[in-house]
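#lab-general

N.A. 3:47 PM
ok so I finally got the sequence cleaned up, no stray characters, all 317 residues accounted for. can someone with queue access submit it? mine expired

B.Y. 3:52 PM
send it over

N.A. 3:53 PM
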Amino acid sequence: MAEQSKRTVLVALTSNALIAVAKIGVGVLSGSSAMLAEGAHSVADTTNELFLLTALHRSAKPADNAHPFGYGMERFFWSLLAAVGIFVSGAIFSLYQGINGLLDGESGSASLLLSYLVLGIGFVAEGTSWLTAVRQLRREAHSSHRGLVEHIRRSTDPTVKTVFSEDSAALIGLLLAAIGIGLHYATGSSAWDAASAIAIGLLLAYVAFRLGRGTKELLIGAAADPELRQQLWRELANVTEVDAVVEVLTMQLAPREVLVAARLDLMDGLDSDDVERVSAHIDAGLQARHPEITQVFLDATRASSAERGRSRRIAGA
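B.Y. 4:20 PM
back already:
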């Protein structure tokens, strides 16, 4: 899965780097606000792909004494930087170009044919990258028994989601730029060109916010998927030696690594050897049924009558 993510990011990096040069060249020559905004957009995306490659590389480091649970959260950190990069390098510059164009009342224009040629090449390049990300997301969704939209919403892998979101925004941004430039030529008013740059900036700001919010939750220790937590509770409650499940805590350590900590009220009469046997059985069973669970911590405790009732209600839900 990591190799698939790496290929997806490399395709996006190549596409964005090539088209960024063309957009900026036309933008500088013409002074078009929309084309410069799109150039900034592609530069931001190119930089972000470098962040994502760094995330994939660093998150693969094995656990050590300094990081006993591994380096999986590096993926979340660098993906958060990518979201910030979209906002700073793309959204702010695009908004500046658009607002400046509106206030000055001037926005240059290159040959309509040249502008549309660059935008068309950009659409093909971004579309290729977008399709690569969609194919990987479809494979992941199929293996998780989810629909594509549901998987994108619930996936804990920010790498491919970032590429997908960037490319989706890029395709929409290209259409906005094409509309703004076309209306500029049709009406002679540069306000359309500037307005399209502002629209691109707002689009990038929205994408950056959505990506940043989701990655922030993972970075500060988000729980695993609610469906998995519910399933874990039922499985623990169905263990013969468990009288009640007091609490099940989870934390996403990496896109496909989950820590589980559970407080269990075990049946009376178990000696220390029995407790060890039951704990080993539970540990092995959870990891066998859920390969994403890499750490399991169990705490034997006494449940109150209220906790016993809650355990039965949740287990039966």
